[in-house]
């Protein structure tokens, strides 16, 4: 067994999202020796802007947009649900490894994605040459209701014609009785908290965590949300916390955690 595979030495980690995101994160944790339990605490529901989304997807098919952007793998699911079609003239900018995997698996185009070592929204805005070429572009941005509109704002600041649509809502999902029992008994050693919404669900669903349970927050906005919620976990095991965060960040960029 490699040194990397020994880092988390059998630690049982709850991964709070399923799908491609959960699979990528779980594999990265297992590669470091952890045992993973995928138990979604959030899911995705129909948008409050359904009519606007339907109209935007009609325009997408008609070639009304120069570009479309996505920073979440769930956008691919939304597109499939609506049987969305891309006009051949429309290019697609993607942020996040899980997002890119989901788009490619769905058969959708991916024109631009940031360097894999720095796959962030800010890096996309730096590398995306077309948005600084002087031409006003018509861009469709699809995102979650709880995601920060960093990409949308960056495009608007550069003078582009942006149609922003909340493509889906992020909602809480109750953990199963089995999962609650495993957490209450301490059989799950660490809970991965990968967004502010997940922090809310952990605080609400598991108000009395065992004192030895690690609450591992990834990303500055998540840490801030956890602090505001007074969501605390075991201390004194910083090596384990650092190893979990490193594993997650090796598989998923923070942009994938904003849903």
TrEMBL record:
Xref: Pfam families: HEM4
EC number: 4.2.1.75
Pathway(s) served: Porphyrin-containing compound metabolism; protoporphyrin-IX biosynthesis; coproporphyrinogen-III from 5-aminolevulinate: step 3/4
Keyword Disulfide bond carried by entry: no
Gene3D superfamilies per record: 3.40.50.10090
Top-level taxon in the UniProt lineage: Bacteria
UniProt similarity note: Belongs to the uroporphyrinogen-III synthase family.
Protein name listed in UniProt: Uroporphyrinogen-III synthase
Species annotation: Leucobacter albus
